[in-house]
Design a protein that fits this description.
heterodimer, A: 468 residues, 2 domains, 13-stranded mixed beta sheet, 10-stranded mixed beta sheet, 27 strands, B: 372 residues, alpha/beta, 9-stranded mixed beta sheet, 20 strands, 15% helix
Chain lengths: 468, 372
Amino acid sequence: MAKKKTIVEDIDRRIYDIKNEDKFNYKSEKGLTKEIILDISRKKNEPGWMTDFRLKSLETYEAMGLPTWGPNLDALDMNNIVTYVKPDTEMKGDWSEVPDEIKDTFDKLGIPKAEHEYLAGVGAQYDSEVVYHSIKEELVKQGVIYTDMETAVREYEDIIKQYFMKLVPPNDHKFVALHGAVWSGGSFVYVPEGVQVDIPLQSYFRSNSPGAGQFEHTLIIVEKGAKLHFIEGCSAPKYNVTNLHAGCVELYVKEDASLRYSTIENWSRNMMNLNTKRATVDKNGTIEWISGSFGSKVSMLYPMSILKGEGAKSEFTGISFAGKGQVLDTGTKVVHAAPYTSSTINTKSISKGGGEAIYRGSVKVTSNAHHSQSTISCESLMLDDISRSDTIPALDIMNDEVTIGHEAKIGRISDEAIFYLMTRGISEEEAKAMIVRGFAEPIAKELPLEYAVEMNNLIKLELEGSIG
Amino acid sequence: MKNNKLNKINPIPVPTWSWLGVNDISIEDRFTNENIRKIPFSYQWSRESDFSGILEPMNEDKVKNSIFDTISYEGIGEKVQGDALEEYNAGFYLETKAGEKLQDPLCFNLTMTDEQSQVIDNNVIFAKEDSEITIIVDYQSKSSTKAYHNGLTRIYCEKGSTVNYIIIQNLSKESTHLGACFAKLEEGARVNYVIVELGAKESITNVRTDLQGNQSTANMYTVYMGDKERIIDMNYLMNHYGKETKSNMEIKGVLQDQCNKIFKGTLDFKKGAVKSTGAEEEYAVLLSDKVRNRSVPLLLCTEEDVSGQHAASAGKIDENHLFYLMTRGFSEAESKKLIIEAAFRPIIDRIPEENIRNAIFEEIRRGLSDAE
């Protein structure tokens, strides 16, 4: 009799696949031209410097080639991507004013409920624009700013001008240049010196329009001694056309400040997720990345930490789950650019059903970064023999006073482990479920509770027969 | 006289960010002697009396229509590989006798001089069924010679055979060394490499092993010492095709001055390589804050039932060890030498010739004191 295999179910996408009618107030033409960009800028009523910035980014975009490494991007045809879709509403500060259909979607995604229960502020973006934004009064009193990027460009122009795309310049790579040209939406957070924001802020990005691109920009500044936890969620329903997400996240963590940035990304399987995230950390500051990648057709995402102040720290905790038809090329980059800096990288990946999970990372230690430490650990779990799992780390060390350790492992659920648990009276099915959950556990425990529950739901095990 | 560049040679099996500079390397092409074939270069070799296989200078007839025509190995790069196959002026063809297991090694010495500073050698080792052989190739040059060496060795191991292949590279600090090695293993065959990299201004090496047959095994033990502004680029690839194949890489090195080292080590588990295991471990001792130490340990996998792991670590000499030795009356420099020697010894001790081992340790000690 043929041995039955344990089937690990694909991610349950029912909630995410809600499709609303493609209603919009304004939608740009497909493709990318100077006229489209001028049009977007006009609609947003932006200052001239931003319009110029967009046009210059477009030039950069046109001059740059596609990456010479990484997943195949042939499915992406920029001439067929709509870069700007303005939803049929203005931004509201009260859910009751958000159009029913859009509100329903966010309701089903649990955003207003979460806001009520455990968040200090919420931003909700629908296609290209933010439709809802709120922040608790007491934070405003302490000088915390949490608003959409469009408002920030108008109301905090000096700050935005100083920081916008300075950490991730448009010439970084082609899709960042594209972002610079067509960015729309996103959140701006400013935490003043010494302010501890103990309850997280959350922005949720929902892409509804078929064949559209989403290019939100997130800019966070955590001043000296301040503290913040920011959560980002992303999803979209599945269409038969390719959608593109090329967001950009810039995080400035100042002296003694700390920032935790959590993401659960669950884009639909027609999404090209070519996202760029970067943090710069000053003296004794801390950046913590929690990153879960579950969705998209192709992802290229490597949050980067630049430890530029003495004693700066970074921690990256990531999990990815690549199912059928998915190529998730994810990882992280760390630059130790000052003495006594330290980094920890901990990633897990699971691949099944022909999916490809790739860890790609780099840790660089510059020549002045003496007494730096880095610990890297990557683990991959293959659930069948039609999938793929690659680990592509790089270490670049230019100082001798360092302690760097890297470890990676690849394999499947071991028969011995199952057998051991079974000898302890646990059923075979439960043993396997425990092992897969245990594999993901170190990451799951770092997630906010609701997300951890969601992740456990995402990795549902349908247990039948034996693994192997 | 030509003055070309060798562009984008020694590519990594899967590229990554180009700014890391690890995807490939470009160096000056110092090969200038277009008439190289007219000046054949002879190896010195010690022929064991009990060796009853074939050992001859390389000639095309020997490898024509043989198993070697079916091998597709790109080596370090098209031009370098083409030169090695077409323009060689040295090399050997070695074929063992089935079932014959030789205890003593065959030693080859190739010392380059000002008179003959450019050598391309093309070697073939054909291990017949159940035979076993140890080959030591020692590349040296006079310290004043600006040598150019391009070497290609292709190894084919029939069922159950074992080849121990030991390469020592100690060319002058102004030399270019391009070393490519390929091995294909049939069922139950085994190849054990020991590579000692001590010299050359640019040392670019590529070693690919195809573990084709079930239960075949490959072990790679490398030590390197890098100093001055030298470049050491190592690109090792273990391809697991057969079932229950095993590979292991152990790389140890010491870097000082402004030395620039890149280690690319890949374990590739192909579909069907069930129950295979691969391990890779790299350890670099850094003795200066001007070195550049890059490592890219790749793990590629399309088969679930395998186990692969790699580990890399780098840093200064353990201060506790250093302190302990210094309390025993050793100077700091002496203590460092002792610690490095101790780390390298398990690998160097795999070379079954005492005089060669001693020469290597002497060279390492000299190299370490140069840096003080």
